[in-house]
Design goal:
Layout lengths: L13 H19 L14 H8 L5 H20 L4 H23 L7 H8 L8 H22 L5 H17 L6 H6 L8 H10 L11 H6 L2 H10 L10 H11 L13 H12 L1 H22 L8 H26 L9
Helix pairs in contact: 1-3, 1-13, 1-14, 1-15, 3-9, 3-12, 4-6, 6-9, 7-12, 11-12, 14-15
């Protein structure tokens, strides 16, 4: 596997790249940790417990959206407004291509209708992660308006924190998503993600994190999501809307104020972080395809193992294996000059 090297890593934010790397690994773990089946031993978690623990990684999409808004605003500050539409069209190409690929792979052609094509395969329900594109398309079209609104509240960041927690608490615990069309739309409407986008925009102008937490606290912060689920029993259909997810995401994002640079990271580790951070969009698009192909092969072979700790080891191996396969495929796609299909 070849890992591309940037000419000048000093121009990149190591902290942002690390967060993007952790988040894309979290995405792949959520989607593909089940790839290699196993028979639980007495020392293993059962599948239900594994599904519970996977929820700790639900910070991934909020972190991506915050960082996306941060860099969008940085670009706007540097180059001026007007690049949103160009980015929209650039993102539309991989969206349409990969949506077509997954449509051919998973569509039920015997019961297919025009309504199903539009309501499922093109609006965020067609394949794992497609909804992320739908969210970005809305945000890109509205970015100039959102940033103007955000900048009016630059001095009220603590109030934004509090209102955001109350907002997510309300829509989670008020059975909001059980209301007809609201439930069908799920968390695809852009306004559910506004707190992350607004805070990302504001962070491009000044440090909005007036708190500094020990590294250990940042590392274990995803446990807050599990604690909320375990004790408060929220509905999990729209788990990204949990207040615990918002708080955890902020704690993790606060590490962006770190002065860590690539010079402080061992070169081989830095290259791996940079590759994963550079290829997040490609991995996002490709990991469902890799999982579909490998799952089929695993079933045909009849692969299954049992050993103490398999419930922990195999999901981690699955995640690394899928990401490695994605990077190999991304490099191949770029070599045949189709990089626009996988480029960030």
């Amino acid at each position: 596997m070849t890992i591309p090297v940037l000419k000048d890593l000093s121009q990149r934010s190591a902290s942002a790249d690390i967060l993007k790397t952790i988040s894309i690994l979290a995405v792949v773990f959520i989607h593909g940790s089940h790839l290699f089946p196993f028979s639980p031993s007495n020392l293993d978690f059962d599948p239900e417990n594994l599904d519970f623990f996977k929820n700790a990684f639900r910070f991934c999409v909020p972190v991506f959206l915050f960082i996306w808004a941060y860099f969008m605003e940085k670009t706007t500050i540097k180059k001026g407004a007007g690049n949103s539409l160009a980015r929209f069209y650039k993102l539309l190409i991989p969206f349409m291509f990969w949506s077509s690929v997954y449509f051919l792979l998973i569509a039920n052609f015997k019961q297919l209708s025009l309504a199903a094509i539009i309501s499922k395969h093109l609006t965020g329900y067609g394949w794992s992660g497609q909804y992320y594109f739908i969210i970005l398309f809305q945000l890109l079209l509205l970015f100039s308006i959102i940033r103007r609104i955000a900048l009016r509240f630059e001095r009220f960041v603590p109030i934004i924190y509090i209102l955001s927690i109350l907002f997510y608490g309300f829509i989670t615990y008020s059975h909001w998503f059980q209301i007809g069309i609201i439930g069908k739309l799920s968390y695809r409407p852009f306004f559910y993600w506004m707190p992350y986008v607004i805070l990302g925009i504001l962070y491009a102008h000044r440090n909005i994190f007036r708190f500094s937490l020990p590294v250990a606290v940042v590392v274990i912060s995803p446990l807050l999501i599990l604690i909320e689920i375990y004790y408060l029993h929220p509905p999990l259909e729209n788990i990204y809307m949990l207040p615990g997810v918002f708080i955890t995401s902020l704690v993790l994002l606060s590490s962006m104020q770190s002065k860590l640079t690539y010079e402080n990271i061992p070169p081989h580790v830095g290259k791996s972080i940079q590759a994963l951070a550079n290829y997040t969009l490609g991995i996002f698009c490709l990991n469902p395809l890799i999982i579909i192909i490998l799952s089929s092969l695993v079933k045909r072979v009849g692969f299954s193992v049992q050993f103490p700790g398999a419930s922990i080891v195999l999901p981690l191996i699955s995640t690394v294996f899928i990401c490695s396969a994605c990077i190999l495929l991304i490099n191949l796609i770029k070599k045949i000059r189709l990089g626009i299909l996988v480029a960030n």
